[in-house]
Amino acid sequence: MATTVAPQILERLFGNDTSERFELIDGELRAKPMVSIFHSMMMIWLGRLLSEQTEKLTDQELWVLGDPLAKIREDHWLRPDIAVIRAEDAEA
Prior knowledge:
Number of helices: 2
Radius of gyration: 15 Å
Largest sheet: 2 strands, antiparallel
């Protein structure tokens, strides 16, 4: 059964306010805390390592993304720190 998400929740989830980031978990909007400097440095380092490895794969184009908004289901959107996706799966 599909769940309808209120427009106000979607506005906060997709908003351009860089001071707050949100995830939608089981229909509940939750603030995601800002990362520490060390955490940010680790994300950059891990992203670079993943990029180096994905460039070696020739059978498909892969993208390494930082802090993407990923739809799991209609009422469940997460923000992983780092994600590797196939280019063909990316939304325009």
